[in-house]
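Our platform keeps sequence and structure together, in a single record for each protein. Such a record has a labelled line for the sequence and another for the backbone structure tokens. Nothing more is needed to write down the fold, since each code stands for a local backbone conformation. For reference, a complete record is included directly beneath this paragraph:
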Amino acid sequence: MAEIINLRTARKAKARAGTAATAAQNRALHGRTPAQKAADHAEAERRERTLDGARREE
């Protein structure tokens, strides 16, 4: 026999899980030191320069 669940409770639990995932993602993105942000910015610029340098001209 199938387990009986309360749909309202299941819906609320799903919403809480989504909110928790978003909060974790925001903590990882915004909860960094200025040095970490600068390092990420420098890494992104380095990747962009490398990609542009390998581009073929038509």
The longest helix spans residues 7-30. The mean pLDDT is 92. The CA atoms of residues 21 and 34 lie 24 Å apart. The chain is about 75% helix and 0% strand.
